[in-house]
Amino acid sequence: MRCANQGDWQCMLKLASVLVHEAWHFRNGRDEAGAYTAQITFLMHQGSDATAAGVRRARDRVLAVRGSPVEAVAIKLRERQTSPLP
Ligand SMILES: [Zn+2]
Fold first, then answer.
1. What is the 36 CA–ligand 1 centroid distance (Å)?
2. pLDDT, tens only, 24-60
3. Ligand 1 centroid from CA 67, angstroms
4. At CA 33, angle to CA 50 and CA 7, rounded to 5?
5. In a designed cystine with 35, which of 24, 49, 54, 62 is the match (CB 3.0 to 4.6 A)?
């Protein structure tokens, strides 16, 4: 994120919130709802309401495809990438 290099505080908060999101996955697994909740909570505590709103919209889009054919294809592709070669 180039903007973080320029000292943009909101940009740095967004980047930090992505780390919070990924750290949540590392500790708790694949559940996106929990990871997004941790990320949004972090942003709200930092007073970054506008960025939190954007993350909420992203969460809603991600959760909307849950159980859909789109998600099924994504899961198959991930499994293919992580399975050992025959
Ligand atoms: Zn995630």
1. 7
2. 999 999 999 999 999 999 999 999 999 999 999 999 9
3. 16
4. 35
5. 24
